[in-house]
Design goal:
Layout: E1 2-6, H1 10-20, E2 26-30, H2 42-53, E3 61-70, H3 81-87, H4 89-96, E4 104-114, E5 118-129, E6 145-147, H5 159-165, H6 167-182
Parallel strand pairs: 1-2, 1-3
Antiparallel strand pairs: 3-4, 4-5, 5-6
Helix pairs in contact: 1-5, 1-6, 5-6
Bound molecules: inosine 5'-triphosphate and sodium ion (NA).
């Protein structure tokens, strides 16, 4: 089967393709700017985005809204992650975290899939914000995030390795399990 992935983010597409292609799910990127509402949760942002997009698409599609939630900053940047990444970047986050002792943070990914109905899949990965950028793979906040029980930052991992423990990998795993249950060949 094929599904459209509505996103502007090539890094997300690479991860989704790497996860889903071997399972026989062909992922095609489409760039359609859908409104990302100001909301308190990623689930609300995704729900609104899917309900807006469904009128423009006539085949199954999904979107992914993600965020980095830093404990010492009360969950910031969270739902504002895209804007903060664009404006402050990793350097800005490192500056905000300068001398901050509690460096705990988590990434969360929410996938909204639509096939006539909306289905939500989520994944979380806990870890820490390190003191300097490390690694060249991945995208976004990957160079400053060290997942729990790992010596490598997300940016020091190849896609398969990141997928195995990442928030998006976990959301994709739920999504894949659901597809398998609902499309038994
Ligand atoms: P869309 O078009 O899919 O919305 P986006 O890049 O705007 O792409 P989000 O709205 O989900 O994505 O914003 C999340 C921000 O967090 C964005 O700046 C990403 O670079 C970053 N981010 C998301 N997933 C990440 C991951 O797995 N690793 C590192 N940074 C990530
Ligand atoms: Na976005």
């Amino acid at each position: 089967m094929r599904v459209l992935f509505i996103t502007s983010n090539k890094g997300k597409v690479k991860e989704a393709k790497t996860y889903l292609s071997p399972l026989g799910v062909k992922v095609l990127q489409r760039q359609i700017d859908y409104p990302e509402i100001q909301a308190n949760t990623l689930e609300e942002v995704v729900g609104f985005g899917v309900m807006w997009l469904k009128d423009y698409l006539d085949e199954p599609f999904f979107i992914d809204d993600s965020g980095l939630f830093i404990e010492a900053l009360n969950g910031f940047p969270g739902v504002y992650s895209a804007y903060i990444y664009k404006t402050l970047g990793n350097e800005g986050i490192l500056k905000l975290m300068n001398e901050v002792k509690n460096r705990r943070a988590y990434f969360k990914s929410v996938i909204g899939y639509y096939d006539g109905r909306i289905h939500i899949f989520t994944g979380i990965t806990r870890g820490h914000i390190i003191n300097e950028k490390r690694g060249k793979y991945g995208f976004g906040f990957d160079p400053i995030f060290l997942p729990e029980n790992s010596k490598k930052t997300f940016a020091e991992m190849q896609t398969e390795e990141k997928n195995r423990i990442s928030h998006r990998g976990r959301a994709l795993a739920e999504f894949a399990r659901w597809l398998k249950e609902n499309f038994k060949k």
